[in-house]
Amino acid sequence: MLIRCVAYQQGRMLAEIKPEEIARYLSIPDCFVWVALFEPDLATLQLMQQQFGVHPLAIEDAQHGHQLPKIEEYVGSVFVVVHMIEPEGDELKVGEAAIFAGPNFILSVRKGAKKGFQEVRARCEHEPQLLSRGPGYVLYALIDAVVDRYFPLLQSIEDELDTVEERIFDSLTTRENIEALYALKRRMMIIRHAVTPLLEGLANLSGTRVPIVCAGMQEYFRDISDHLQRLSQTIESNRETVTTAIQVNLSMITLQESETTKRLASYAALVAIPTLIAGIYGMNFEHMPELHWKYGYFLAVGSMVVIDLYVFLKLRKARWL
């Protein structure tokens, strides 16, 4: 589906055009065409390939999707794949955006993501001086928008992690905490898989040798690289926190089980003493001390109570009860 196809000249919108008119506007000096597609069919992608002359392998990647984030340079153009991550309930849904940038065109192909780049286009159109830099600046703005969307996702994960950490030290620590921690770890891995390859690829756009379409934009791409570095460091820090929290949670469960075992052993000891005395005097031997004594029953029961009370106080002092 075609979202918009617009021609820009010297940082200002020249006209909103049809795909069949792209070739005519590409020949205009200081003009470039910005096309946005959402889950297009093969015919639309082939038309874009004919109009812009992009590499067929890049078109094939954009058509099939399921690519790792990457930045590749072809003759006269740059091909970028970024992951667009959106919350969906308690999980994260991963979409893709394939971006083609050439000297006089920018083409974005979005798949599996609901939120598009309308705010990016509005931002660029409100900054004609920056937009006059051409497709290189639009490429920066698109990647920057995707990266900026990772921050609130990671902040949400950090907030949930703080909540789970507080629950660990509650009196009722259960396996739900471990399940929640593993779910947070899985979500962080999704963001990590989106950040790490892109961080490596941006080195080609912010170094000394850059593609022609990105010439003069190194400081902008370096800013994105700094954001990705922050994200990567935060993810690694949170992963270590999750690992530590899981270990602490398991230790707390072990301590709770130990406390339960101690209490059960204490109650068993309290029951064992009366059982022992009752068992001895229940053997029915003819010659037993105090067997026919008038107060034998009261002595036996009293001995049970006194000894149990003594053991109970000792266990309470040792904090087993």
Descriptive notes:
The chain is built from ten helices and seven strands. Helix 7 packs parallel to helix 9. Among the domains are: 133 residues, Beta Polymerase, domain 2, CATH 3.30.460; 59 residues, no CATH class. The protein has 321 residues and is of the alpha+beta class. A hairpin with a 2-residue loop joins strand 4 and strand 5. Helix content is 58%, strand content 18%. The chain has a seven-stranded mixed beta sheet, sandwiched between helices. The longest helix has 63 residues. The mean pLDDT is 84.
List strands and helices in order, with pairings.
Blueprint: E1 2-9, E2 12-16, H1 22-26, E3 31-38, H2 42-52, H3 56-64, E4 70-74, E5 77-88, E6 91-102, E7 105-111, H4 118-125, H5 128-131, H6 135-148, H7 150-168, H8 175-206, H9 218-280, H10 296-317
Parallel strand pairs: 3-7
Antiparallel strand pairs: 1-2, 1-3, 4-5, 5-6, 6-7
Helix pairs in contact: 2-3, 6-9, 7-8, 7-9, 8-9, 9-10
Features:
321 residues; alpha+beta; Beta Polymerase, domain 2; seven-stranded mixed β-sheet; 10 helices; 18% strand; rod-shaped
Quick description:
The protein is α+β, with helices and mostly antiparallel strands and about 325 residues long. The chain contains ten helices and seven strands. Strand 5 and strand 6 form a beta hairpin.
